[in-house]
Amino acid sequence: MEKLQFIVLTLVTILSIFSDQILVQSQVSLEYVRPPPRRIITTPHDRPEAHPQQVHISLVGKDHMRVSWVTTDKNAPSTVEYGKLPGKYDMSMTGEHTTYRYFFYKSGKIHHVKIGPLEPGMTYYYCCGGAEKEFSFKTPPSKFPIEFAVAGDLGQTEWTASTLLHINKTDYDVLLLPGDLSYADTQQPLWDTFGRFVEPYASRRPWMVTQGNHEVEAFPIIHAHPFVAYNSRWIMPSDESGSSSNLYYSFDVAGVHIIMLGSYTDFDANSAQYKWLQADLAKVNRQKTPWLVVLLHAPWYNTNTAHQGEGESMRTAMEHLFYNARVDIVFAGHVHSYERFTRVYNNEANPCGPVYVTIGDGGNREGLAMMFQKPSPPISLFHEASFGHGRLRIQNLTHAHWSWHRNDDQDSTVRDDVWLESLSSTAKCKGTAGDQRQFKPIGDEL
Ligand SMILES: *[C@@H]1O[C@H](CO)[C@@H](O)[C@H](O)[C@H]1NC(C)=O
Ligand SMILES: *[C@@H]1O[C@H](CO)[C@@H](O)[C@H](O)[C@H]1NC(C)=O
Ligand SMILES: [Fe+2]
């Protein structure tokens, strides 16, 4: 049996690598000479069995943090000790743990502990499960300015290492990831190497993620249940945002309401995700959170020849909700390049629609998506196929600065940047769904 599983998984891997190669080769453009994909780094486990590994943190509710980690030792406690001074832990919280199986793989003990209440803009020192290794993180501020790092389709290659190094070089508050994390693609030990790979960064700042196609990991009949590894390892604050699924949720941080959606779960008008999104948008108070940002994996707007049309059914189902709620920015991944659109609604430039950004260029093993449609449609303002990351600095309730930083080997270079104004303060866009007289959605037959 084990041999059979090995053969099946090997075949799957070979097939997926092979199809990626074909994709890359067919997309090589003559205009650019882009660096090729770089090798995968497999970060080893070099700590004792009871010691925490793969430590990462995420925001939960107004003033709590979830600390997640894995131990090989099944008896290691799910406890976090923490405090404001190094080595002095005057607070302690105990949480929960889980494990999962995937074919013949059995995960380590995956711990999740909610700690808090925490003060904003404060450094905390912590250790997990009684092991002496100390970590620290900084909580985000409670007021503007706040800075988000944004990187999608991360993987665990030398390019990923370069992207994360650049992200870490300048201080930021929260990392936002629009899907495709480990590229384990059913090979579960690659989830563990990914956890170790990102720990130096994900244990210092909250990482808020949503899932992509590489997280699905369903296998017909034998492993029909999708997202098993993702849902066990990357628990996000769905309970706290009234969502019944870890695949979509929202959170507030320093005057920004952020919604994370699932591109690979139901989204039509009768679905639980649609109803949750509708209710969540209705609750947004733009006085309290003037900025409204959405992340999802498969882009609704995309002029790259890769993955054309893959976000279209979700766009058709949900775009009017974004438009009526005056969503400011939508980040997507999936396409391995960078692209920024103007404000768009229903395929046309619209001053009250969201700005769409594709940022699937974190550094995964598949390489870049090189080819864009020609001529470039006028709603697409900038695109480039290079690895990199984005920065969203929300300056105050009206202004934010967006920049895209390309990996130029040792350095990162700003290749695109723009000031954005929140739609909550744009006089002609202030109406919402309730005010249809003034803001009749264009092209909406309903
Ligand atoms: C990230 O940046 C911090 C602060 O400059 C530094 O202490 C830390 O070593 C960096 N981490 C890595 C992995 O480079
Ligand atoms: C918000 O920030 C922008 C850009 O820095 C600035 O021009 C504007 O005056 C600020 N608005 C307020 C109310 O401070
Ligand atoms: Fe993807």
UniProtKB/TrEMBL annotation:
Entries under Gene3D superfamilies matching the protein: 3.60.21.10, Purple acid phosphatase-like, N-terminal (2.60.40.380)
Keyword Hydrolase: yes
Domain Calcineurin-like phosphoesterase residues, every copy: 148-338
Reaction(s) this enzyme catalyzes, per UniProt: a phosphate monoester + H2O = an alcohol + phosphate
GO MF annotation terms: acid phosphatase activity; metal ion binding
Signal peptide feature range: 1-19
Protein name per UniProt: Purple acid phosphatase
Annotated source species: Aquilegia coerulea (Rocky mountain columbine)
